[in-house]
Amino acid sequence: MTLHSQPRPSTELQILENLNLRIKLTKVEQLNYQNLEKGYIGERKFAGLLDKHLTKSPILLYDLLFKINNTEFQIDCLPIFSNKIYHFEIKNFEGNFYYDKDNWYVVETKKEIRSPLTAAKTLSNITQRTAPQTWIQCSSRILHYFCQRGIHIIPSPHKLTDYSANPS
Predict the structure, then answer these.
(1) What is the count of structural domains for the chain?
(2) In sequence order, what are the beta bridge partners of 48?
(3) What confidence tens digit (pLDDT) does each residue in 45-101 have?
């Protein structure tokens, strides 16, 4: 595992960046490239905020990739203090979203998207099971940081009216 003290573009993003300079990406590849790039920009924004506002200096680890039980998990940012570990999931979403239990949807289209909370919950469950065997005992907390100013996340209105037409 390679440890990074600043966010770095993923291998997949680097490959797509280079391919994009040389060939015309398919629509699926282009969308994947844009999403990866947007995520990386969000991670850099978040790192800048930490650098600017942290008063204590934790060990900051970025882009940790784990493979547990044949499932890969990425941790965007893991600040480690002397008595607490924070697990930050950084999301650079734009738009209006609503959630119903563990399902997330785009308000305007009512299309379901992959929940930004699912991977963190799964990783939390796995680390709780394996922590007594492998980790130093200290408290931990999972936090989600949505770095776009224009994002709106609302609980599920079971009778969702046309929120996008007039959100006032």
Answers:
(1) 1
(2) none
(3) 999 988 888 888 888 888 888 777 787 777 888 888 887 888 888 888 888 888 888
**Residues present in the chain in total:** 168
- The answer to whether residue 69 sits within a structural domain is yes
Three-state secondary structure call for residue 95:
coil
Does a structural domain hold residue 68?
yes
- The two structure tokens encoding residue 162: 């046309």
- Tell me, yes or no, whether 2 lies in a domain: no
Range(s) of the domain holding residue 138: 11-155
Q: Evaluate if pTM is beyond 0.85.
A: no
**CB hemisphere CA count around 15 (13 angstroms):** 5
> Residue 113 is inside which H or E element, if any?
strand 112-113
Helix (H), strand (E) at residue 16: helix 11-22
